[in-house]
Amino acid sequence: MITSIAEAAVLSNGVKMPWLGLGVYKAQDGDEVERAVKTAIQVGYRSIDTAAMYQNETGVGKAVKESGVPRDQIFITTKVWNSDQGYDSTLRAFETSRKKLGLDYLDLYLIHWPVKGKYKETWRAIEKICKDGLARAIGVCNFHVHHLQDLISDCEIKPMVNQVELHPMLTQKELLQFCKSEGIQMEAWAPLMRGGDMLQQPIFVELAKKYNKTPAQIILRWDLQNGVVTIPKSVTEHRIRENADIFDFALSAEDMAKIDAMNQNKRLGPDPDHFNF
């Protein structure tokens, strides 16, 4: 059982990745993202997830540097965007991200979406980045089973992480099983389905009362107990703190099953098979 924010999943190459991270999608570069990252680090988060497309890598890097926590204790993820995919352009995009973040190396570098006809050469560039010691771990985002099978069929280094949309309305059980069988760590983006209706669902209101937690805390705990790394995004201090307060309770098997049963294969974002790249 995961009982501390300091605990980490161990990736296939032995690198430790914290179970809980801060997502910074839509956080404005400058004060907003810097405040969010500094608050998270102060609360005990040791993982920050950004992307070239979020246009806030500079602010993330500045906040990490000013946090007072040694670099080797913070796990930084960023991603190559679709328009930069391809071998040479990925290498260039990585260097751009690295400079914006002001880091010597990244902890995790991901392909943001499986751009058809490009993700394999993109992956070759990311393998080089890993072999050169510039990224401690590498992986993908939004890959279905068939994308992973295609990549694994002739890659040198298997992806260590697959970050996908995952929440109680989209439980991704088949993908989760496949990733577990291949030693690929699953990670959830939009774990709270960006708030809204899901947190008002009667089951979460009922479980929140039962465990003396909030609906959001129930859902994030469900992620952890499924063996899924989770990166809820927020720029609000009380939410950043609340999202981290999930290590002092455990959901029963029966309650886990109730949440699993909510699946409707409902996506907030695009289906990776039909994304307008």
UniProtKB/TrEMBL annotation:
Keyword hit for NADP: yes
Query: NADP-dependent oxidoreductase domain: from which residue to which, for each copy?
Result: 25-263
Q: Which organism is it from?
A: Effusibacillus dendaii
Q: Which family does it belong to?
A: Belongs to the aldo/keto reductase family.
Q: Which residues form the active site?
A: Y54
Question: Record keywords: Oxidoreductase included?
Answer: yes
Q: What is the lineage of its organism?
A: Bacteria, Bacillati, Bacillota, Bacilli, Bacillales
Pfam families linked: Aldo_ket_red
Q: What is this protein called?
A: Glyoxal reductase
